[in-house]
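#structure-requests
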Amino acid sequence: GGPVITLVTPNKDSTKVSESSLRATVTCTDTSGIASVTCIFNGVLLPVNKGADNSYSVGVTGLAVGENKLVFIATDGSANENKTKKDFTIVYNPIIPVKITVNPDSQKVKLGAEVSFEVMAIGNDLTYQWQENGKDIKGANDTAYTISKTGVNDDQKLFQCVVSNSVDEVTSNPAKLTLLYAVSYDANGGTRAPSDSMLYAKGKPVNISSSKPGREGHTFLGWSTSKSGSVDYEPGKTFNMETGNVTFYARWKRTIRNMKVVAGYFYSMFLKLDGTLWVCGKNERGQLCDGTDT
């Protein structure tokens, strides 16, 4: 037979460690007693310490990254000096402290657009937790965080990522999300509304177009932020951008023009405000100009 060698610590034939040293302990038993126990680590003989209850231990230092071989050899006290060998594999995977190499960038995007933030880090066994204004975002545990459709409530928020492993935790620099808003013009029953292709952040000055729309029979009064509201801004004026897209509506005043009236022998002619000519009265001499005398 030979002695029975049982691993105590670590208690598996193969184990993974993150430290570069460890202490391995075995128990060796045999009916003939144990004459000697030796240990070889990566081909080098190590001193073995005998403890109580048939335990034997060695201190292992200087583990190489990857697999390391530890072999215990026990010899019994019989005349035959029977030997038993027990192989043990140690996989050394050192924990590298977290280091963020690329912080997320601040972003400026149009309201409603998709936006992504990304972080890059070195280390092993890394975990990621994105935060919005310092609070964890549920389910945001990747190297990137994406908002598929931005809303006005996302404006000016700060996004950062906490990167961690078992020995370290590092928080990235915060990245600010700035939304950009559009300005549009509605002629509100008229024509020739101006346009603006620019995008503006909240608080930025906007020069209102100096172009005026037109509408038959009406006088343009100015621009309103509501379709039926009072005039808020005149053409060419400046206002500071608010949160959200802005539409300016033209406000109009109906133009009063004199209606022309011409009277003749038992007939009258009316030139109406819409430009049409109306005639009424007797028609025995064709006064009504409709091609008849009735």
